[in-house]
Amino acid sequence: MTTFPSASVFFQVLINGVLLGCMYGVAAIGLSLIFGTMRIIFLAQGAVMILAAYCIYWMATLSPINPFFGFLLILPVFLGLGWIMYKGLFQKVAKAGANPSLLLAFGLMVLLEHVMSLIWSPTTRSVITSTSTSSLTLGSINISVTRLIVAAVALMATALVFLFLKKTMLGKAVRAASEDMSAAALLGISPTYVSAVTFAIGIALAGVAGVAACITYPFDPFFGFLFSLKALIAVAFGGLGSVGGPLVGGVMLGVLESMSAYTFSAGWADAVAYAAFLLILILRPEGMLGRRSIEKV
Amino acid sequence: MKNNGKDVVLRLEKITKSFGGLMALNGVDLSVEQGQIVGLIGPNGAGKTTLFNVVTSLYKPDKGDVYLAGKKITGKPSHQLCHLGISRTFQLVKTFLSLTAFKNVLIGAIYGHGMRGRQAREEALEALRLVGLADKKEVVTAHMTLSDRRLLEVARALAAKPLITLVDEPMAGLNPSEIINMLKVIKRARNERNVAILWVEHKVDAIFRLCDRVAVLDYGRKIAEGKPEEIAQNKKVIEAYLGKPPP
Amino acid sequence: MMKKTTKIVFLLTCLFFLSSLFFTMQQARAKDKKEILIGTHMPLSGLGAFTGEEQKWAYEQAVADINKAGGIYVKEYGKKLPVRLYEIDDESNPTKAAAAVERLIKRVKVDLILSGQVGAMGVLPGMITAEKYHKYYHGAVIWVPQFLQQHFKYCTMYFMDPGQGAAMVFEVWNSLPEKDHPKRPALFLEDTFDGKTIGNVMESLAPKFGYKFVLRLTMPMGAKDFTSQILKAKGAKVDGIFCMSNVPEAVTLVRQMKENRFSVKAFQGFKGTWPSNFYKSLGKDADYILCDGFWSIDYPYKGAKELGERFYKDFGRYSTNVGMYYAVAQILWQAIEKAGTLDDLKVRQAVLDNKFETVNGPADYDERGIALFPLGDNQWLNGKRRNIYPFDLAKYKIMVIPPWDKR
Amino acid sequence: MANHLLEVKGVNIFHGDAQAVWDVSFHVDEQKIVALVGANGAGKSTILNAISSIIRPSGGDILFSGNSTVRLKPEEVVAMGISQVPEGRRIFSCLTVLENLELGAYPANKRPYLKESMKRALSVFPVLESRMGQAAGTLSGGEQQMLAIARALMARPTLLMLDEPSLGLAPIFVSRVFDTIQALNKEGLTILLVEQNVFQAMEIADYAFVLQTGRLKMEGTTEELRGNPEFQHAFLGIMG
Amino acid sequence: MLQEPLKRKTHLSIALALVFFFVIYPLLVDAEASYLVFLFYTAFMYVTLSQGWNIAAGYAGQVSLGQHAFFGIGCYVTAITWRAGTAGYLDPLAMLMSGAGAAVVAIVVGLPLLAKLRGDYFALGTLGLGEILRVAALNGGSFTEGAAGISIPSDVYQSIKPYYFIALLISVLTMLSLWFIAHSRIGLALVAIREDETAASANGIPILRYKILAFTLGAFVTGLCGSLNAYFVFHIDTTGAFNLNWVIMPILMVILGGVGTFVGPVLGVFSLIAAFELIRLLTPQLHPIFSGAFIILVTLFLPDGIMSYLTGHKNRLLHKLSPFKWLALNK
To answer: Residue B73, SS3?
Structure first.
């Protein structure tokens, strides 16, 4: 065990955890949205993220466009991609239940990973931006600018999803459909349309997460899977009772990881995260923000 | 424990249970004697099903105790209560859908009462016969009608050879002729098995027809208890439950 | 119930599956030998993929080169036979590496096996499998103790000596001016066998060269944040780093060092800092960082320069790796010719008995089947790796890293 | 003929391999309350779902104001003016009462009238007004049923189909619900009522169709049926 | 589940014929050089692993995503006892101990998890278990030899036949015990728990005990496979032992074959292995791409598994077993 030598080190570790957690959070939002309506674990989410990362990489190396524009470009492109993916693959399988969808997502992940490695080769790539290694200094605390941008993106994505779900008719329809698909259909809400929209948004958010990841970390075609595992934990941490759940869960995970890496050992950080995850599952299965539901008998 | 010369099978003492701020049950006392059919009625949300769930340990009461044949059983796990002699049916029917009717009842005989082999099979068949489902024993329950599934639940509960069976709205969703059949089955069960029955029901006329005693819940409190005739006359009950008296 | 016809179609499909398996498996070894079939497995996907690509290229060059020369003369058949290479992707997974070697031996029925990669992730399971079926596995990239533990009779290895590698690091640091020697160096190690092995050797050899590591920190594989480690190092006033990791981790570490304004005098990376993508990912920030090299285009050996330039032509970058893989193949070709047969034990014996000239210098196996080559050290500057070690071959000298704010 | 608002013609419906509805034909006339009664499993809900296009019948036709609906999607049927209050209420318990109501006006051609419809729905069920911001799951059973009907009204239907509106309700609420149905009908709404509570249904309906195990058994005005001994035997049994 | 006696007889004879074929096959060919023998050995392993998952997930409805933890424990128990000299080469006692080790962990972890978590949460919890154990083994010091892993000299290896027959035996025993369980009162209880836990409990079934029984049994056979694998590969480290492959592949195979069915997983194992082999054969370079495409095609056209395709029964279980339906947005 190491203790914190000073308050500033403590805050530095804390801030780093929060910023790392925002990264997990932004990856988790899309996941939780897709889980929410379609009740599937979209394992290929990590692969989709990396696909977006490669798109940005291409854009940044082949053209003089600033990678930060990627956020704006990726959104419509991946919205379309998600729509096509749903219509082409998931619409049919979603009817068959959650397990085939899980399987489909797994197949898609394998396919995407290897197609990417065929196109871009499996070597590590990264995108260098104007803010790549710059940082702000507040007293003795250093804050990475890139990570701050990612945190802002995570907040914005959460806010947008929140607004979409709470304020728009379509968003309300999404919430209704995720609670009772057939009752929603009776009101004139098309289940396939709602699912397709949700899926497309989920994919678009994965794309945004991919852009966020590629300006922060080097990546390769197989980098996404670990990320989707962490995002999954973030989702479980936050619970799905609230839209902010994934972000809060991500931040909790990030802080936990960086705290245990500093005080304990980086080698155990993952185990600590998983153990906390188990503990939370056992003590508060609905997640930290979720509402407890009473089983109807 | 004796009460009017008969054995008290189930006794509830001051059961209190709240969810969040909502007081679902508030100091409810109740007792059921051997071979007695006790009806439990009350408006929607009065706490009838909650009471069942407290008795069968799906919920833990905040206060109060449950006694079975004089022994305190509060908070014992559901499956132990079944071994001790409490079986039940569910408002939303809970049969094991992928199993046949026979196997459903067999589970009651094997796990509810601890019978084995031939004895268990015979008991299961006997219970099926009692509810009139003997000829449908090889039908997978997923393919059964609601009425048959309700009967099946009763059979499964009886196969456990309980001291008391809790039946939760066995007539919900049934048509009049099916209701008559269910009434007959419940009556037959009591007569042939001498089992005590605690019965939650919405169909008040059905309750009045068959019950030895009726208890009325309203907002988690027991507001009346007595013979069906008495309850039917009780002003409090009529106002709280039936609304304005019929013209 | 489904229709009978569909069921029949289904069964026929299954039959097709099975029968095709049977038939392809029954290719007997032809009496009339037309080619030498060499099998290999490589990490073309998964964690080791970044090195698999260069290995694949080097092997294919070695095969093309020998075939251009008409093949290898094998006395047993009285003629020159061309070489054919059969590659399997082992996905950086030890179980799949073992299965890959099973497939090479039993289904593809290769004559001999060229090494896979990355120690316990590929080479070791591959060697164990080859050993089971008495197939010669011409190995590389595995640590000596790991190799010796198994008492192999059908395998050989060609790699660097970790002790020598560790000594190199200290010798290079010592070649700095006295005032710039790292006084409080730290180890940043990935949680793999490679990390552990090299870390142990570094720690045990340090006192001999007048060093002592003040910290030993773990960098878990796939981790995305090393700030905690950096803060600890900063707190301990670390001024020199030895880092063993993969590329993404090394890149993230350096980026975060800069973000946290943490400078050291010397940064020696192993494995994660040599690929050219390391530099591409960091740009100028990668300058002055040291990287190990299994080989250098600047080596004065025959074919080295030519090979390095060919690689540059294909990839637009330089490699510090391909020469080593090319050398592994070169040794095998020469050994086959000297053995005059494809018999597994005889070829292995030829490997043990002879000395070989390669693009990576001379190779001489000992009686345990081990040949070690010296590790090289390079320093990044302006996108180029400047060879600084071995001192007698190197054209450049090490430079101290200026602090971030002075660059 | 002209005033048949809804016409079901020789409909057959399958659940997987099993046929649930056999060649059923009936019609609902404008501004009437029509009851569809029958034992459990008689196929009443199945027929409602077929009208709502949740299930596709494998034979026959369903005409609404003379237009076939069988090839339409559920949302198109709602847009045409048929709303269903499903069995068991099926309100969205995590959404607020307001959101539930808003979703009732989801179809594009209904949205412009959202405010108007809301006003009307609240005038029918003033209780809901004070509960607008509350999660619908916290309402009592009777209030939930009101919400479900109000939600269906938001789509400004010409035909309102109610599936077992009295199920699981205390008698006091049952009579309130039936009063409301009658009042709505008086305002000009056509109603197709599926009910197991035959008494109450016959009380308010103009005309009834009786289903038995997926087949149409008899039909007639409620007075005719009450006098029919066969009908009494099947349904009124002990309860009479 | 009950079959007509005649049908049961045919099924039995088919099963016996298959087992007989598998027993004599390696004796007819040059087993050491036959790739098919190795492939069959792998298939037997996966049959056991698949059924080990299927018994808890398919029968009792407890979807575990942590089978690789038990596989890894099996590997490590064998490797550690073998290194210490307490167990010998292909030592049945060590194998049983490995299975028992996995079973003990299943009980210790299963108690809180299965008591507290319903189906879907449980799936996530078990996923965490595998990762925790992996990290523990990585940091296990000289006991697990950390990242280095435990190496045992492979010169004791003689022939693939013992592995083949042990794997065959384990898989046949697993199938037999599954058959007996499925047709006994235990099977009845497991199915009841899967269908409705509340009702099962109210009918006197001690659900926790039976869930743990199923989970532990699955862990036990998975541990056995891990042990055999340790003997086969002679080198155990965290990447190989706690590889997610050991949980993903069996699940894929069971889903492909048919969840909660007896024969389905076996069909799933053989068809997936055959398909992947064929793809490797046709496109050695691109096989992962085509394997991914194959999985996608299967889910598009056989979403309920091979068994439902053959028998015509839709597999409703798939819907019930959705491991993540709890993540509903508005729960």
So the answer is: coil
